[in-house]
User: Fold this.
Amino acid sequence: MGRRWRDGRGTLVVPEARRNGGPGGAGELVGAQVPLEIATSYRARTKGLLGRDAVDGAILLSPANSIHTLRMRIPIDVAYLDRDLNVIAVRTMKPWRLGLPRLRSRHVVEAEAGAMAGWGLRKGVRVEVRDGAVSPRVP
Assistant:
Protein backbone atom coordinates (compact mmCIF):
# COMPACT_ATOMS: atom_id res chain seq x y z
CA MET A 1 0.00 0.00 0.00
CA GLY A 2 2.36 2.72 -1.26
CA ARG A 3 1.75 6.36 -0.43
CA ARG A 4 2.52 9.14 -2.89
CA TRP A 5 2.44 12.58 -1.34
CA ARG A 6 4.04 15.79 -2.56
CA ASP A 7 5.73 18.54 -0.58
CA GLY A 8 3.07 20.91 0.70
CA ARG A 9 0.32 21.26 3.27
CA GLY A 10 -2.25 18.83 4.57
CA THR A 11 -4.02 17.58 7.67
CA LEU A 12 -3.05 14.86 10.12
CA VAL A 13 -6.18 13.15 11.44
CA VAL A 14 -5.90 11.30 14.75
CA PRO A 15 -9.17 9.37 15.23
CA GLU A 16 -10.51 8.67 18.69
CA ALA A 17 -8.49 11.29 20.54
CA ARG A 18 -9.93 11.71 24.05
CA ARG A 19 -11.26 15.07 25.20
CA ASN A 20 -12.56 16.01 28.65
CA GLY A 21 -11.58 12.63 30.08
CA GLY A 22 -12.23 12.01 33.75
CA PRO A 23 -10.06 10.13 36.24
CA GLY A 24 -11.12 6.75 34.83
CA GLY A 25 -10.23 7.77 31.29
CA ALA A 26 -13.90 8.26 30.40
CA GLY A 27 -14.60 11.03 27.95
CA GLU A 28 -16.00 11.93 24.61
CA LEU A 29 -14.13 10.43 21.66
CA VAL A 30 -13.30 12.97 18.98
CA GLY A 31 -10.89 13.10 16.08
CA ALA A 32 -8.04 15.59 16.32
CA GLN A 33 -7.20 17.36 13.06
CA VAL A 34 -3.75 18.89 13.01
CA PRO A 35 -2.23 21.22 10.38
CA LEU A 36 0.48 19.23 8.63
CA GLU A 37 3.50 20.14 6.53
CA ILE A 38 4.37 17.30 4.15
CA ALA A 39 8.05 16.82 3.27
CA THR A 40 8.72 14.11 0.68
CA SER A 41 11.55 15.52 -1.43
CA TYR A 42 15.13 15.02 -0.31
CA ARG A 43 15.57 18.77 0.17
CA ALA A 44 12.41 19.23 2.24
CA ARG A 45 13.17 16.18 4.43
CA THR A 46 16.75 17.35 4.99
CA LYS A 47 15.60 20.80 6.11
CA GLY A 48 12.72 19.50 8.26
CA LEU A 49 12.42 21.59 11.43
CA LEU A 50 15.97 22.94 11.40
CA GLY A 51 16.22 26.60 12.34
CA ARG A 52 12.67 26.89 13.65
CA ASP A 53 11.69 28.13 17.10
CA ALA A 54 8.18 26.67 16.94
CA VAL A 55 6.04 24.28 14.93
CA ASP A 56 2.51 25.06 13.74
CA GLY A 57 0.97 21.59 13.93
CA ALA A 58 3.29 18.86 12.68
CA ILE A 59 5.57 17.83 9.83
CA LEU A 60 5.48 14.48 8.02
CA LEU A 61 8.78 13.14 6.66
CA SER A 62 8.33 10.43 4.06
CA PRO A 63 10.05 8.13 3.45
CA ALA A 64 11.92 8.07 6.77
CA ASN A 65 12.75 5.55 9.49
CA SER A 66 15.00 7.67 11.72
CA ILE A 67 15.67 11.31 12.52
CA HIS A 68 18.12 13.51 14.35
CA THR A 69 17.75 16.76 16.26
CA LEU A 70 21.22 18.12 15.50
CA ARG A 71 21.11 21.94 15.18
CA MET A 72 17.50 22.05 16.39
CA ARG A 73 16.44 24.70 18.88
CA ILE A 74 13.49 22.99 20.55
CA PRO A 75 12.65 19.53 21.91
CA ILE A 76 10.25 17.58 19.69
CA ASP A 77 7.86 14.66 19.79
CA VAL A 78 8.55 12.02 17.15
CA ALA A 79 6.02 9.41 15.97
CA TYR A 80 7.25 6.55 13.79
CA LEU A 81 4.60 5.20 11.38
CA ASP A 82 4.54 1.93 9.46
CA ARG A 83 3.41 1.60 5.83
CA ASP A 84 -0.27 1.51 6.91
CA LEU A 85 0.11 4.69 9.03
CA ASN A 86 -0.05 2.82 12.34
CA VAL A 87 2.01 4.45 15.08
CA ILE A 88 4.76 2.02 16.10
CA ALA A 89 6.56 4.32 18.59
CA VAL A 90 6.38 7.83 20.03
CA ARG A 91 9.41 9.50 21.58
CA THR A 92 10.33 12.95 22.86
CA MET A 93 13.79 14.08 21.78
CA LYS A 94 15.91 16.95 23.07
CA PRO A 95 18.01 19.03 20.66
CA TRP A 96 21.35 17.58 19.51
CA ARG A 97 20.34 13.90 19.67
CA LEU A 98 20.41 11.01 17.18
CA GLY A 99 17.33 8.80 16.96
CA LEU A 100 17.65 5.07 16.48
CA PRO A 101 16.30 3.72 13.17
CA ARG A 102 13.00 1.84 13.40
CA LEU A 103 13.04 -1.09 11.00
CA ARG A 104 9.28 -1.11 10.28
CA SER A 105 9.01 2.67 10.05
CA ARG A 106 8.20 4.20 6.66
CA HIS A 107 7.15 7.71 7.77
CA VAL A 108 7.97 10.03 10.67
CA VAL A 109 5.79 12.77 12.18
CA GLU A 110 7.47 15.54 14.20
CA ALA A 111 5.81 18.14 16.44
CA GLU A 112 6.62 20.32 19.44
CA ALA A 113 7.32 18.33 22.59
CA GLY A 114 4.09 17.46 24.40
CA ALA A 115 1.77 18.09 21.46
CA MET A 116 1.21 14.45 20.49
CA ALA A 117 -0.12 13.47 23.92
CA GLY A 118 -2.73 16.22 23.57
CA TRP A 119 -3.79 14.84 20.19
CA GLY A 120 -4.09 11.29 21.52
CA LEU A 121 -1.25 10.13 19.28
CA ARG A 122 0.29 7.03 20.88
CA LYS A 123 1.55 3.57 19.93
CA GLY A 124 -1.11 1.48 18.19
CA VAL A 125 -3.19 4.40 16.85
CA ARG A 126 -3.77 4.53 13.10
CA VAL A 127 -3.66 8.03 11.65
CA GLU A 128 -4.81 9.49 8.35
CA VAL A 129 -3.01 12.03 6.17
CA ARG A 130 -5.12 14.30 3.99
CA ASP A 131 -3.45 16.33 1.26
CA GLY A 132 -4.50 19.88 0.52
CA ALA A 133 -6.22 22.51 2.61
CA VAL A 134 -5.84 22.41 6.36
CA SER A 135 -9.01 21.81 8.36
CA PRO A 136 -9.63 23.69 11.61
CA ARG A 137 -7.89 22.21 14.66
CA VAL A 138 -10.05 20.37 17.18
CA PRO A 139 -9.02 21.26 20.75
Q: What stands out?
A: The beta strands are 8-19, 28-39, 58-61, 76-81, 87-93, 107-112, 128-131. The first helix runs from residue 42 to 47. The radius of gyration is 14 Å. The chain has two helices and seven strands.
